[in-house]
Amino acid sequence: MYRTFSQVGDNEDLTISSLRFRLLRQEGYPIPSDLFNKFKEEEGNFKESLIGDSLSMLALYEASHLMVEGEDILEEALAFTTTHLQSIATDPNSPLATRVIRALKRPIRKGLTRVEAIHGISIYQRDESHNKSLLKLAKLDFNLLQSLHRKELSEISR
């Protein structure tokens, strides 16, 4: 994924760009934040059309938490998305409200991996369009790792 990062075209949407950026940054790859410039207007502000895409706003919010000092575009992204996500969080009709509220309290980067995994599984399970095979695989993986941790803990505590 990192090797093909520079080959990504201008037609990639904000959700995919943000997710790709976040995942690669989390793994320590030096991904440039200027890739988000294509989502800004000529005046330098993020495009107003992005506000209507809640999923993209959430993805950009999560990605912006991986900024390093001097990345002004990610600071702007954090301010832009926080403002608009707060309005989504108060909308009871928004299907993403639960995810947004949780993200505003604790971004994925600041959470524990296994806790975030089980939370993600429960949210995905409630999504009507979920893939049953993928959901089953995620649950099996979680339970298998939990079982392994229990086994290791019992061996250590003997």
Task: Summarize the SSE layout with pairings.
Layout: H1 14-26, H2 54-64, H3 72-89, H4 97-105, H5 113-126, H6 132-156
- Compressed to H and E, one letter per element, the order equals HHHHHH
Number of distinct beta strands: 0
Please report the distance between the alpha carbons of the first and last residues: 43 Å
By oligomeric state, this entry counts as single chain
Radius of gyration over all CA atoms, rounded: 18 Å
- Percent range for β-strand residues: under 5%
Structure description:
The protein is 57% helix and 0% strand. It is built from 6 helices and no strands. Helix 3 crosses helix 4 (97-105). The radius of gyration is 18 Å and the shape is globular. The mean pLDDT is 89.
Keywords, separated by commas or semicolons:
single chain; 57% helix; mainly alpha
Quick description:
It contains 6 helices and no strands. The chain has about 160 residues and is mainly alpha-helical. Helix 2 crosses helix 3 and helix 5 packs antiparallel against helix 6 (about 130-155).
